[in-house]
Known about the structure:
By secondary structure, this protein is mainly beta. Helix content is 6%, strand content 39%.
Amino acid sequence: MKQLKHVILTSISIMLIAVACSKSSDTTTDETSGNWVKRSEFEGYTRTEAVAFTVGDTAYIGTGYDGTNRLTDFWKYEATANQWTQCASFPGVGRSSAIGFGTSTKGYIGTGYDGINKLKDFYEYNPATNTWAKKADFAGSARYEAVAFAISDKGYVSTGYDGNNLKDLWQYNPTTDSWTVKGSLGGDKRSGAVAFVYNGTAYICSGINNGTSVTDLWAYNASRETWSEMKSITNVSSDTYDDDYSDIVRNNAVALVIGDKAFLTTGENGTYTKKTWQYDFATDQWSRKTPYERSERSGAVAFTVKGRGYITTGRNSTYYFDNLDEFKPADTYDSND
């Protein structure tokens, strides 16, 4: 009997050691940290693959594809009034999957796809006069599904698809209306990625290359003109922090920055998703947040104004969307708003 007891205890000990040394698998439960609040619906047509940018405290959205037509209408959203106003239409050909970025005084739209051609034309919007002006064509190859961002009143365009997935980086100087090639992203080529900016550093992640979602995350320091690889967005380490990171992987998602955190949501990776993840710039790690509370979708747009983050438009296999929702990451989930 004493020998049997020893065997049982030894077996239990081995099991406990195995559990302690293995990576935890109990990390796939969605959080209820953060709350999505319905705001005034986008007033234009439902659409996907539009562009959005902010100038000052105003967000602007335009172009995109409604399932039949590629669009040129253009709208602004005032967060304080929770109100949409139609602006002067985009003067270029209707397009989807273009890029947009905003500086302190102007907004810019370029590249994209008109249903036949990949594009490289480029336009400036002046909110003070509600007018558009054609600018120097994008100096890289004509493409769509690229990313863009602005740092210190200069614009940057990277990645995308021109018949081949890309990872080049171009800087636009509004003062001289000129483009300059910069050092390419150090990781995988990709299209359908996301870009977000925090404290003068831009981050690019997600997207697809060779039919497979990419998992590297890169940071670009604009003042030093250097790229740094951050921790992967999939489960590659022997530590527990990334056990369920494979749930982050996707393309055609949206990203936004609220305070000192970034948030990634929607997109697709085999299926449409609304899983939401928070990126901590200080720790270079991700954590789950409350999933987006509306329908799963791809090709939405997101923006941040007055420190508040929003998502709108997009599509799934059944619908094109026009709902607008604000994400409040510090709030507790409430299904009634």
